[in-house]
Each structure stands twice: as C-alpha cells, then as structure tokens.
Specification:
The protein is mostly helical and about 290 residues long. It is about 60% helix and about 0% strand. The chain has one domain. Mean pLDDT is about 90; it is low at about 280-288. It is found in: Endomembrane system.
Length: about 290
C-alpha cells in the first residue's frame, strides 16, 4: 500500500518530467528535420496552443482534484472493476488494462467525431491550420473535462493496476506529442514503425481537410484499432507535402485570439465533418 501512495504522490512529477523531455526532443527534431513548411507564424501558434494547455491543466485541477492513479488505487482496494474480480497476475493485468484503456481512447475519439455536439468541442483541435508538436496539446477545456470523466469511468469499470494507469497516461501524452510532430521520418522506417505505434505520417492524414481522411486514423498509441475496425488510411491523397491541414470551413483560425479559439464550439459552424453526416471532399461539396 505504501508503494501505491508513493505512486499517487509522484504521479504529477513523473508526468511532467516525461512531458518536458518529449516536447523538447520533438521541438528540436522539428527544427532539424521538418516534414512540411508551416504556413502560420510558429511563435504565435506556439503561444496560443501552449496557453490552451495551461488553461486545460488549471481547469482539470479545479474540476477533478483527484488523479487517475488514485481512482485506480481506490478501485483496487474496493475490488471494483473487471480485472479486480479475477485471479490475474500483475503483468497480465497490466497489459490487459493498458490495452483496454487504449481501446477506450480510440472509441472516445471516434465518438467525438461522430456526435455533432461533441465534434463542436473537438473542432478546436482540428481547426489548427498547421500541425506540429503543440497541436497535440490543443484541446478545448470542456473536451478535456469529458475525456477525464470517461477515463475515470473506464478505470472504475476495468480495474487496471495503478501502475498501468500511470504508464498509460505517460504514454498517451508522449504519443500525442510524437504523432502530431512535424518531423521527417524515412518512408521505409515509417512503414514498419506504424505497425506498432501511430506515426506522425499516419496521424497527419487525420488532420486533412478532406472529410474521408479526417474521419480515419483515430488511434493515439497503437495503430491496431484502426486496422481492426476499418478506419485505417495509409496515406493522404494529396501527399504529405501538399496536404491541406485543418477544416475547410474554418480558414480564419490564425486571426483568432485565445478567446476566439475557445469560443469556436459556440460560434463556429460545425461544417460537414461529423461522421453521421455524409461527405467526402469539401471541394466537391461546394460544387453540388
């Protein structure tokens, strides 16, 4: 039990260390080996996107004073959750819990694209007209609140070990920074790397303005769920250098301040992107 308490108290520190390490590596990598030329001013974008994550962090602390690791520890002590009802070795419970949480994130991401009111919140992430490491931090505070609530419910239902929850959160944060990176990975390496993790080239497709590409590649850590459920798309039709990033109906995001970006779910048009609305290419929709 003492080990669990130490894990809970050190959770924030561990996550911060990994966060600053990964974002520093990705920022340097983007300078040395960028994949694409950015169309917006990088400093202005970074200020805006980093300010959003600061607002998110403060909001989550105020709304949810407890941590995910403490939720997992409480579930374990009270024998809540599926995994806590069976005699399973710790390594097996760790792997099963980690995979189950990753699947839940895939399904959550899919849901935020499928339900129009949730898509409005998720638009803030996709409205970024460039994609780099800071895009992986750019989520509306209300989306972050819903996401954390879903994680809490998932942990209570599954009952993963506290260490698995901490490892998953560290991996999820790192993968979000990595797969949004504007970094150049050789095609031969990417081909094999994406068999095990979501690569920047794989996730960049998801940020295309073309609807069928936006509604694909929903995975964050592992690429397997997209392949299993038929949402995998290997490459953007326009190629990575020519792909248009963002949303076809919001091409003014760069002119918005932080308040304008946060108001997008309430002031902006949701466009034709939610999965429950048919569509393929915004350019074709304009002609019809």
């Amino acid at each position: 039990m003492n080990g669990i308490y130490k894990l809970i108290y050190s959770e924030a520190g561990i996550r911060l260390i990994f966060f600053f390490f990964v974002i520093s590596i990705m920022a340097i990598w983007e300078i040395l080996r960028p994949k694409r030329q950015l169309i917006e001013n990088k400093i202005r974008r970074w200020k805006k996107n980093l300010l959003i994550i600061i607002i998110d962090s403060i909001t989550l602390k105020l709304v949810f004073p407890v941590t995910l690791v403490s939720i997992a520890a409480g579930a374990e002590a009270a024998h809540w959750g599926l995994l806590n009802h069976f005699e399973i070795s710790r390594p097996v419970a760790f792997i099963m819990g980690f995979l189950a949480m990753d699947l839940s994130i895939y399904l959550q991401h899919l849901m935020f694209h499928a339900v129009p009111i949730l898509w409005r919140l998720h638009m803030v992430h996709h409205a970024d007209m460039d994609i780099d490491v800071t895009t992986g931090l750019r989520f509306h505070p209300l989306e972050m609140i819903l996401s954390l609530a879903i994680k809490m419910a998932t942990i209570s239902a599954i009952g993963p070990p506290p260490l698995a929850v901490l490892a998953f959160e560290v991996a999820l944060n790192a993968s979000s920074l990595f797969n949004h990176g504007n970094v150049n990975i050789a095609e031969k390496i990417d081909k094999y790397l994406r068999l095990f993790v979501v690569t920047p080239d794989m996730h960049r497709v998801h940020h295309s303005v073309i609807i069928r590409e936006t509604n694909s590649n929903f995975g964050f850590n592992f690429p397997w769920w997209d392949r299993i459920f038929g949402t995998y798309r290997a490459q953007p039709i326009m190629g990575h250098e020519q792909i248009t990033i963002g949303l076809s109906h919001i091409r003014y995001e760069s002119t918005l301040g932080i308040l304008g970006v946060l108001a997008l779910p309430f002031t902006g048009d949701q466009g034709p992107y939610p999965i429950n609305r048919s569509g393929a290419d915004p350019r074709l929709l304009k002609k019809s």
